[in-house]
Specification:
161 residues, mainly alpha, two-stranded antiparallel ribbon, 2 strands, 67% helix, 2% strand
Length: 161
Amino acid sequence: MSEYLDQNIHKLLSSLDYREGMKNFKKKLYEDFFREYKKSVEDVSEEIIKMYGSDSKEEEMKSAASHLAEYAKGIYDKTIFFKKSTTLVDMQCMMVFYVLPGILKIPSEEDSRRFTDVICEEWSAVFPKEKISAATYDEIYNGFRTTFLGFNIEGMFGDKK
């Protein structure tokens, strides 16, 4: 794994403010926030692309995934007892809503899918009672509901953009 990726893979998670991520996890806000997130981790994404071209990409994927999961574990371990559960849920949400779909947007669909699978495996190794899985940006975006009981609710509560 490149030294740069080794030292910066954590940016995939650390560049996200959990409150902002949750606040923007709405159909009208998600697209713009996701685009901003992708732009903020562009340097890491470029290094991931280089990793995909490596002869030892499987080992490098495992190492990068391990570094990312260990970074999350470090945050969790430093959190006071009463906030550990909330912190873990926040990190998992950011992984599922932004980090993993962001990786799946990187060219080379097969390598990106394999890398997200390795990240999910490493996450489970570090947090044995927790399981995350990857979904594409489109799967998540298309999962936002615009109707409730058959009525269109889009724009019903005011545009907060």
